[in-house]
Design a protein that fits this description.
The complex is a heterodimer of chains A (277) and B (287). Chain A is mainly alpha-helical and 277 residues long. Helices cover 81% and strands 0% of the residues of chain A. Chain A has twelve helices and no strands. In chain B, helix 4 (83-114) packs across helix 7 (153-176) and helix 4 crosses helix 10 (238-247). The chains are: A mainly alpha (277), B mainly alpha (287). At the A-B interface, helix 1, helix 2, helix 5, helix 6 and helix 9 of A face helix 1, helix 5, helix 6, helix 9 and helix 10 of B.
């Protein structure tokens, strides 16, 4: 089995070397896909070949079996963690950060006072507030949503303020020449110019929000949720279920990231990074 | 810098006032029920009681400050009640993780820049892996490494390192690619080998990109170390302190541990800033 694994890996590497020479779009997609497939293949064959106990590392096929066998539980966990904790928290946190940035945008004094603090807070281990929120809002989803709100607020605030400063002097003068008021300037010039920054924060926050909700579940939760599933099943050594849950989180993370990236492409189509080709 | 002298204290002061008001508001109910029924229940006595509870819903700033001061200076450094000890345990794991991350991140970045195959196959996965909530895997890594006989600081460092190597890889790849074609052509006319281009041009050019990544990596490593202490029932470390505080309802201790974590994070940012300044000084005033 080990020999088959190594043989497959060698074939994949040779194919990747050949494909990497081509600049075609299909080759650009095929190489990373091949690499991922090779990792899965190596994982499967090496775990089988060396008879690694499934307590340490289950094979990908065992994980897939566990995934489909526990579809109901995983679905319930997904509803609890993503739909009821992450989504409201993400919407409130990002919305509040964005609106706060708009509100303090007019005051230079507040901006100077809040920007360094916001930057500082962004660098701090905010997940630590999870136990406090669980104490305040109880075990169910509101405490998780609260953690997500706090975690997503500051990156959004800092990025939006930075983005609103992005429109150039010349463009602002032009708007002034058109006799545009501050609201028109904001709507037609500064907000569109801030969009790349806002999307940057949205992308960053999509990962942070999932982390916040999952970690908050380590501190207490009803018997549902992906963080709960991971910690309890890891304690019971059901590693295949743990890995299946992780696959769900990974899938959720990448899909939401991809969705936001797609929306970004649509909204900021004018940005040089999308116009290049 | 002088532009910030007035605004920042103003914002901080407002925050403090809001915190006090919130503490009174949130604690009042509980404080009232705990008060001696014979005592006169005026606004002033309730406020006083709300700000001096043993297990308040939201501790007042001065209570947290006292607990923090006591935790830092009140006990010998090796005592399990000393916050310095717990911070040290967490910092050790975070720093070891950061060291793992630097080694792995640098190796990956050099590999990606030097090899077209690695660039095409690995880079999308490195970027994609940032979209995955890695922290969720933390308890599993602890359990798996525990089964392999590794306990103590290593599993925490592995989690911290795993979290923090992505920013380092991405930043370094950018930095190693930052020399422009003119400079590369110049080295080509000198008949420089790939290795010489790497050590004499690409590597020095990438240092400027390393520091912003290092800042992000530092805070991620700290978060990783703290979270790694949560599911394992660790006895020492800021994460264990947070967990103990939440189990026994010791809110003051919880907030003190949280503030300590913030200070550690600040100290880390300061250390990186110093390192950056030292590097700039050593390279003749520019990065």
């Amino acid at each position: 089995v080990i020999a088959a694994g190594l043989l497959g890996a060698i074939v994949a590497v040779v194919a990747m070397i050949l494909l990497a020479r081509s600049d075609a779009l299909s080759a650009r997609i095929a190489v990373p896909v091949l690499f991922g497939a090779m990792l899965l293949w190596l994982w499967q064959t090496l775990v089988e070949g060396f008879a690694v106990p499934s307590v340490i590392l289950p094979t990908p096929s065992a994980v897939a079996v566990a995934f489909f066998a526990n579809l109901d539980t995983l679905g319930a966990d997904f509803r609890q963690t993503v739909l009821r904790s992450v989504l409201p928290g993400y919407a409130i946190g990002c919305g509040a950060g964005f609106l706060t940035a708009l509100a303090i945008d007019r005051s230079d004094f507040l901006k100077r006072g809040l920007m360094p603090l916001g930057n500082l807070v962004s660098a701090m281990p905010i997940v630590g507030i999870a136990p406090i929120m669980v104490m305040w809002f109880g075990f169910d989803w509101p405490s998780k949503a609260a953690v997500v709100v706090v975690m997503t607020f500051f990156p959004m605030l800092v990025n939006t303020i930075a983005g609103l400063a992005e429109a150039g002097r010349m463009e602002r003068d032009l708007m002034h020449c058109y006799a545009a008021g501050p609201w028109t300037t904001l709507l037609k010039l500064r907000l569109p110019a801030a969009m790349p920054f806002v999307f940057n924060a949205l992308k960053l926050n999509s990962t942070l929000a999932l982390i916040g909700a999952v970690v908050a579940e380590f501190f207490g939760t009803p018997i549902l949720g992906m963080g709960f599933r991971i910690s309890t099943q890891a304690a019971r050594m059901n590693m295949d279920v743990v890995w299946a849950t992780i696959a769900v989180t990974a899938l959720t993370g990448s899909l939401s990231f991809a969705a936001i990236a797609g929306l970004e492409r649509f909204v900021t189509f004018w940005h040089p990074s999308f116009r290049a080709k | 810098m002088t532009r910030h002298i007035l605004p920042i204290p103003t914002v901080l002061l407002t925050l403090l006032v809001v915190w006090y008001m919130a503490a009174v508001w949130l604690n009042a109910d509980q404080a009232q029920s705990l008060m001696d029924p014979d005592e006169p229940q005026t606004f002033w006595t309730i406020t006083q009681a709300a700000l001096s509870m043993d297990r308040p819903v939201l501790p007042a700033p001065h209570q947290v400050a006292v607990s923090l001061y006591d935790g830092i200076f009140g006990w010998p450094i090796l005592s399990p009640r000393s916050l310095v000890y717990h911070a040290g345990v967490t910092c050790g794991a975070a720093l070891l993780g950061l060291a793992f991350a630097l080694v792995l991140g640098t190796a990956l970045a050099v590999g990606i820049v030097e090899s077209r195959v690695l660039d095409r196959s690995l880079m999308p996965w490195v970027i994609g892996s940032q979209t995955v909530p890695v922290l969720a895997i933390a308890p599993m890594i602890v359990v798996v490494l525990g089964n392999l006989g590794m306990t103590g600081v290593i599993p925490k460092a592995v989690i911290a390192g795993y979290l923090s190597f992505f920013p380092i890889t991405v930043g370094l790849v950018k930095g190693l690619r930052s020399p422009d074609p003119m400079q590369l052509d110049l080295l080509h006319t000198y008949a420089a080998s790939e290795k010489q281009v790497l050590t004499k041009l690409r590597w020095p050019a990438s240092i400027g990109f390393l520091f912003p990544s290092l800042r992000v990596a530092m805070s991620l490593a700290l978060v990783g170390a703290i979270v790694a202490e949560l599911p394992t029932g660790a006895q020492a470390g800021l994460g264990a302190r947070l967990l103990a505080g939440s189990y026994y309802g010791q809110t003051i201790q919880l907030w003190a541990a949280l503030l300590m974590a913030a200070f550690v994070s600040l100290a880390g940012l300061g250390a990186i800033e110093l390192l950056q300044r030292a590097t700039i000084a050593a390279r003749g005033g520019r990065l």
